[in-house]
Amino acid sequence: MSVRSSSLSPPPLKRRRLVTLPNARTPPQSPSISTIESPPLKHFSKPLSLRIFSWNINGIAPYLSQQTSIKSFFAPEKTSTSKSTPPRAHPSLRACLHRWAFPHIVCLQEIKIAPSDTSSQTSLHRAVNAPLADDDPATASHRLYDVHCNLPRDKNNATGFGGKIYGVCTLVRQDIAPGTETRLVDWDLEGRVLITESIHHAIVVFNIYAVNGTSNPYRDPSTGKVIGDRHMRKRAFHTELRDECARYEDAGWDVVVAGDLNISQTPLDSFPQLRMGKEHVENREHFRNTFTKSKAEGGLGLRDSFRELNGKGKKFSYRPPGRIWGEGMDRVDLCLVSDRVRLKGGNILDCVEERGRSDHVPLWVEVEVGGKDDEVRDEGERGEDETG
Q: Which is nearest to 107 in space by CA: 60, 38, 154, 39?
């Protein structure tokens, strides 16, 4: 897998007549842009569906310790009778992947690795790929991952906690990795966006940690001058993300937006209630107008996969560990898909065990791709290096 400059357009796809994606600005390069990968494989897999997981892990450091046994992941560290603080399992990224049956793509948010901390970045690759001591034949490509990180490089808005703030990471399973590319965008300097193009499936996956709307100041990334607050920046982030998604759709790509969008859309998505302050109401309306309203109404027409598959069912993704389970919660983590995407399944893993050390639980979506009547390979590219 390679990281492609944002100044390049997505490669043309065979299955549709395409519009060339306009050139974007080139993001600055810095040590905060991390790509950790293994040597490319000779073969890649082209499955008929892709399973995509997303999880705001809220700090990846606890998961970078030495991996031991898959059974130890479920073993409590100590006995606890507190309703708000259940027994904590030994954290293991590898055990999570094993339990989730090794998804094709995993989007992690708030990994909180400082841009200069190359040791933790290397440890992350090891934590993802090191086999567990029990029942884990990790040599197969469908159990190994390329690791890509986008860490904050905004010296005026992402400086707290010694740089251990924000940050996203995308894991791409190695049997599909040779048919993918990962890129950044120059309008995000806080480590919030990572784009993975699955060229052979004609689908692009956005890993997103959206801005949380607050009254805290937002500074010009270049000058440091205060130019607004985080509510303003949140709405600007919506607009930039919409434009990026629209460029891909116009170029013939299917779009999946997965991550912590930091928005509860309806009363079904919050308990005990939605935040009703003026700015929060405006943020919510801006989100709807930008992403979920139909194209005829001026929006992107993205579909909320959880609502489409589960109707009015109530599950939540933000579960603060300091409260009794069920006392206060929100569905702010989403998998949004464009109109051509065919859903096969999806849900929120809404339980204490899946929350782990985070304050969010994971969610997933499975989408159909490829097939006899839906070839997406570039012309002339099938050859000895491709199978499946």
A: 60
